[in-house]
Amino acid sequence: MSELSQNQIPLPDKHDERIRRSLRYSILDGAGWAAMAGFGESFFGVFAVFLGATNLQMSLLASLPSALGSVSQYFSYRILSLLRSRKIFVAISVFCQSLMFIPIGLVYFMGVHRTDLLILFVSFYLVFGLLGVPAWNSWMGDLVNINEKGRFFGRRSRVTGLMTFLSFIAGGILLQRIGDQTGNKYYGFVSIFILACASRFCSFYFLTRKYEPEYKLGSDERPRVRDYFEDPKLRNFTYLALYISFMSFSIFISAPFFTPYMLKDLKFNYTAFTLVIAASAIVRFFTLSIWGRLCDIYGTRKVLTVTGFLMPAIPFFWVFSGNIWYLVAAQCYNGFMWAGFEISSFNYMYDTTRPTNRVISISYFNIANGVAIFLGALFGNLLVKYNNVFWSAYLIVFLISGIFRYAASFMFLSRLKEERKVRSITYGKLLLHVFSSIPTTEYMFRAYTVVRNSRLIEDTFSRKK
Predict the structure, then answer these.
(1) Whole-structure pTM value
(2) Residue 423, helix vs strand vs coil
(3) Which of 92, 163, 288, 322 to pair with 294, CA 20 to 30 A apart?
């Protein structure tokens, strides 16, 4: 997202105590948001399996809230025009999001339609969470000096990444142990959802403590949809939007089904499930900065192309074995490639949009991407429903998802052009640079050592508690 106001304003004074204090509060706000995601959002799919969700309901849970949340951002500018305060807008959306953990936790008592109601409440949860994102970006754009944005957001991302990982690990432990001690796994979910709600309230508190510089609504250029296909200046962004949307469709063919595959077919307990998912998160945390430096030096398009052809192999790995250590290794590869793909595609979006049309351009992109996610999940559900090929109904979606991901990369990556002047390097040398770099090797070894020696794995060899 970008600044909603395009008015020229002075660069923030980094010596202004109000701004310095606000930036510290922003990091604490991010830590609260990350803890909420780790304790709560990460376990929505697990909760749905516990409630007895069907494959169609798992598809809807993974896709419909994201689609509605993405579409909701199209209305952010209009709401901000009414409220005239980014701080108030963001605070209201965050407060409402935190409250949604109450009905989410109580769906257990809502009868035969409890899974459908879970999908409804999670949809509200993501709509409230995503609605204020453009205003938050605008607000932070006025607080952070343009010459220090990379350093500040890099530091903030490291904090949020670490907090997400730690809260996810803690959530998995609590879910397993409280469920075992009480004899009812529901109490484990109640515990982690309470922690998620409290974490978001902490985030809300620090948001309200931040200073908001004077804000005036600007007037953005508003290209029509057809302009993105006719205007050569917008063509690079159009190809990127089509590529990411097609990729999202391909990813969500399989994305809703990794959780039920592990919990139902492989009979993993919650500790084993947490271990597999955490492997990806910790490798992503350690390697994100490496990919970021490569984007700065060699260009986002180069990194996007490399990861765009290596990332699609991820779902294929899940077809060959259900061994927990094999899947941990596969998830390490997943975290490494996704770190590069995410940061390069995110940065490339900023490279291919102008400040005067960025808000509306990203709004159009979010709508297309949200619809693609929804359709991909529905298609995956049909594949699972009518699969008669493999011993597990989920393996077919892993295979098809990988094929579609490669199709997206072959169709669009060659059409993208680098927007900045960057250092030239061949793809082979770029790969060699990545895999032979000492920091990468060191971080990967550390990640493996942490996972291998963790006390979390004491019970994971027994796939069913």
Answers:
(1) 0.76
(2) coil
(3) 163
